[in-house]
From TrEMBL:
DNA-binding region ranges: 2-95
Isomerase in keyword set: no
Source organism: Roseateles amylovorans
Matches recorded under InterPro entries: HTH_77 (IPR058852), OmpR/PhoB-type_DNA-bd (IPR001867), P-loop_NTPase (IPR027417), Sig_transdc_resp-reg_C-effctor (IPR016032), WH-like_DNA-bd_sf (IPR036388)
Pfam families linked: HTH_77, Trans_reg_C
PROSITE patterns associated with the record: OMPR_PHOB
UniProt protein name: Helix-turn-helix transcriptional regulator
Transmembrane region(s): none
Keyword Signal appears in the UniProt entry: no
Domain OmpR/PhoB-type residue range list: 2-95
Length: 841
């Protein structure tokens, strides 16, 4: 490729980075020179503003008018008409280019005459790829070998052909398009290029290079994956043996040639969420589907009646152009909703491609098969094992998924890397690279499993992989802060759900094991309701093969999940958990079972609690984690609070909060703040740990700042500072409504106390009724509740209190929130019904 250009008295030398006019250098800024070089390299083609900005200021955020400023400076040097502005599109270099000179000392090239075949016509419709086209053109202008790599059906050839037409003016001899794959079979690369140049098919590589050496052209090799090794050898020879030949290659597989630059076009864009038809058509996938649908049926239009199912269909087809075209071809037959429903059988549905196109484009299955045929047996095996993974996977997970096949970790790593090279697996960059299969390829993998008769073993291995992963997650839980633990294991939620769904029917013991090791994940993600119904599936009968320790763990967790919704049932499961733990020969497990029963079993008497805590204190403490020992502090604080030893309870909670802060247990801190609030409600104490709580409110994780506000507000109420408490509680409501939401019943008692202190006794009573209906957290708050009831009985007679509580029990959450800070009493609702209840009572 030439590094020197001449145009109307000017000479641009890219190697020396100088612009000469009549042999004298012209002073140009560095950015001006770079901008001119990009425009000249495109030789009359339109260059978008984005492409210029990316080339001249790569990776930087700059003002959009920077390009215009430098273009104006260049026009002062080259002349006003040297660079044309196309409003809203970009710029074009308009000066006539001279032919490049023959290098000094070189003889004019001689050789056989060539008659290159004509470049295929540009794509008649080019939708959704304008930005990709400009980016590919720029990359091709900067590098001699660019490989357009992507999954089958992505539209690589269409994009490369459009780019070839865009860049043709930049080459003296134009563009040579060589398709290496025809219906009759693949062609040897050298023969295919020779034939495209009008030479004999048997031309040797050395003779072909001699011809190419005298040319200035862009050589495009289409479908190079049919013989990637041969294509790589040829491209290397061209880069080494010529100077002015640039290469653009389309391939499903990376060539791995020195100097190769990859261009991976993404799937066509799909709206991320609901939107109207006009906005949806701005996304390439929807626009392409609609265009092809209209080609089949002129009456088809996108509107409010069908925009949502069209978006959903485009998303399920991964924005893959071939799949979208095939789906649009079946729209007239099925209609949009039935078409979407049949996507579970997409390889029988998407079969009616164009009869004039390549065989591999006539159905989605044929397109996938063409890539599958290029794989080794090991790569095919790994591809089938990847299908169950939803939401991505790591290399370690793949190694475990195939550990029954006798492959070592290095063989699996090589196979996975080759699947990435074949564009069948995508990689998400990061500290721990994560891989992913598109939905189309997952569906293809499932089809391959069914044909190989190995669906059950693949699913079993996936479940085995998740059991192994969450064994590690359980160990990591005791060593890592909440946020780091979530960052590592939350991405596996979809995989976890898929494995649990399969285990429920095929391997219940593995399902219970997964439940025991993943409860924290569900709860940290706010999915307690989901893990509760998953637990309920095993409530009637635990698998007989389950080890005792896991049975005890299930009982502990199940009791915990029931404690806020079914306290009597929870008490029964706590007793069962402790009994099993006594036989498991695991002191740490028994310690955990006893502590959690003390803290969460609301059916225990004070004397029973004392006995359990005494037993806890006699257990020999082993090398237990901080998270395990935190339960001991919570149990002791709970007993002391109920015994009226508020100061000692607060001290125990202070120690707990210090340890939790040290290890980054944000969720535990949040619970400790709630326990501290409850102790203050019970004993009416001002907060002695105000500094710690204020620090958490100001600097703690967002998830616990609201709890800290509540805790401080209760302290203000205990000191008789209701006005200050109102300020804090108002801020809490603002945070709560902005997104950091939890069940309002959990904090409603504090708002009831505020109402009492402010003389809003009716609202206070209603809020108490609202909480009483939900019975939320009644275990911890029973004594505190009695304190509030005592305060109310000084202000309201028993009949009126009962009537107001009944009214509050009918409130919605929004009504309770409105009343929580209302300065005037809320109107009494359903008074007649309430009176009737009181009279009946």
């Amino acid at each position: 490729m030439t590094s020197r250009y001449r145009f109307e008295g000017f000479e641009l030398d890219l190697a020396e980075r100088v612009l000469l006019v009549q042999g004298e250098p012209v002073r140009l800024g560095s950015r001006q020179f770079d901008l001119l070089a990009v425009l000249v390299a495109h030789r009359g083609a339109l260059v978008s503003k984005d492409a210029l900005m990316n080339a001249v200021w790569p990776g930087q955020v700059v003002e959009e008018n920077n390009a215009a400023v430098h273009v104006s400076a260049l026009r002062r040097v080259l002349g006003r008409g040297a660079i044309e502005t196309h409003a809203g599109k970009g710029y074009r270099f308009a000066l006539r280019m001279d032919e490049p000179d023959t290098p000094p000392g070189a003889e004019p090239a001689t050789g056989p005459s060539i008659t290159p075949v004509a470049l295929p016509a540009a794509p008649p419709v080019f939708i959704g790829r304008q930005h990709d086209l400009q980016a590919l053109a720029l990359r091709s202008a900067q590098h001699r070998l660019v490989t357009v790599v992507g999954a089958p059906g992505l539209g690589k050839s269409t994009l490369a052909l459009a780019c070839a037409h865009l860049r043709r003016p930049a080459f003296r001899d134009g563009v040579l398009w060589v398709d290496l794959l025809r219906d009759e079979g693949p062609l040897p690369v050298v023969s295919a290029v020779a034939m495209a140049l009008g030479l004999e098919p048997g031309t040797e590589l050395t003779a072909l290079l001699a011809v190419l050496r005298s040319t200035d052209l862009l050589l495009v090799l289409d479908n190079a994956e049919v013989d990637a090794a041969q294509a790589a050898t040829f491209c290397h020879a061209v880069l080494e043996g010529t100077e002015q030949v640039s290469l653009m290659v389309t391939s499903r597989k990376v060539l791995r040639v020195t100097g190769e630059r990859l261009f991976r076009p993404p799937p066509l864009s799909v709206p991320a969420g609901p939107c109207d038809a006009q906005e949806a058509l701005e996304h390439g996938a929807v626009a392409l589907f609609v265009d092809h649908a209209r080609a089949q049926d002129q009456g088809f239009s996108l509107g409010p009646h069908n925009v949502a199912p069209v978006i959903a269909l485009c998303r399920r087809l991964d924005g893959l152009p071939l799949a979208l075209q095939l789906a649009a071809g079946r729209l007239a037959m099925f209609g949009i909703d039935p078409l979407s429903e049949r996507l579970n059988d997409r390889f029988r549905l998407l079969t009616r491609g164009t009869q004039a196109g390549p065989q591999r484009h006539r159905s989605l299955r044929a397109s996938m098969d063409a890539s599958h045929e290029l794989l080794t047996d090991t790569e095919r095996l790994v591809l089938r094992r990847l299908e169950p993974f939803e939401g991505g996977f790591t290399l370690d997970m793949v190694v475990t998924a195939v550990d029954d096949c006798g492959l070592d970790a290095w063989a699996v790593a090589d196979a996975l890397e080759n699947l990435v090279d074949h564009s069948l697996v995508t990689v998400e960059a990061g500290e721990r690279p994560r891989h992913r299969l598109s939905e189309n390829l997952r569906a293809y993998g499932q089809l391959l499993q069914e044909e190989a008769g190995e669906t059950d073993i693949v699913r079993r291995q996936h479940a085995h992989t998740m059991v192994q992963l969450f064994e590690r997650a359980e160990r990591a839980w005791h060593l890592m802060p909440d946020d780091r633990w979530l960052a590592e294991f939350a991405p596996e939620l979809c995989n976890l759900r898929a494995a649990m769904d399969w285990c429920l029917i095929h391997d219940p013991a593995a399902g219970v094991t997964l439940l025991a090791r993943s409860r924290e994940l569900f709860e940290l993600l706010g999915l307690a309701d989901e893990v509760r119904w998953r637990h309920a599936a095993f409530e009637s009968e635990l698998p007989a093969t389950l080890p005792t320790a896991l049975r005890a763990r299930y009982c502990i967790d199940h009791a915990h999940l029931l404690s806020t919704v079914a306290p009597v049932q929870a008490a029964s499961w706590f007793r069962r958990a402790v009994a099993l733990s006594r036989t498991a020969n695991d002191p740490a497990l028994l310690y955990l079972a006893l502590c959690r029963q003390v803290v969460e079993d609301g059916e225990l008497s004070l004397s029973a609690l004392g006995e359990l805590v005494a037993e806890i204190n006699t257990l020999p403490e082993g090398d237990w984690s901080v998270r395990t020992r935190l339960w001991g502090l919570a149990a002791q604080a709970h007993l002391w609070a109920l015994e009226g030893r508020g100061e000692e309870a607060v001290d125990a909670l202070g120690n707990s909060m210090a340890l939790a802060t040290e290890i980054g247990a944000a969720a535990w801190l949040k619970d400790d703040l709630h326990r501290l609030t409850t102790v203050q409600l019970m004993h009416g104490q001002a907060l002695r740990m105000r500094g710690i709580v204020r620090h958490l409110m100001a600097c703690g994780p967002e998830s616990i700042r609201g709890r800290a506000l509540i805790c401080l507000a209760v302290s203000m109420l205990a000191e008789g500072r209701a006005a200050k408490a109102r300020v804090l509680l108002t801020e809490f409501i603002e945070r709560w409504q902005s997104g950091s939401r939890e069940r309002f019943e959990r904090v409603a008692p504090v708002f009831a106390w505020l109402a009492i202190e402010e003389g809003r006794h009716d609202n206070g009573a209603r809020l108490m009724g609202y909480v009483c209906r939900a019975r939320f957290d009644q275990v911890e708050s029973a004594s505190a509740w009695r304190v509030l009831v005592g305060k109310m009985r000084h202000q309201l007679d028993g009949f009126r209190l009962a009537r107001l509580q009944h009214e509050g029990a009918a409130w919605s959450e929004d009504e309770a929130i409105t009343a929580a800070l209302a300065l005037a009493p809320a109107p009494i609702r359903n008074a007649a019904a309430a009176d009737g209840l009181v009279e009946a009572t």
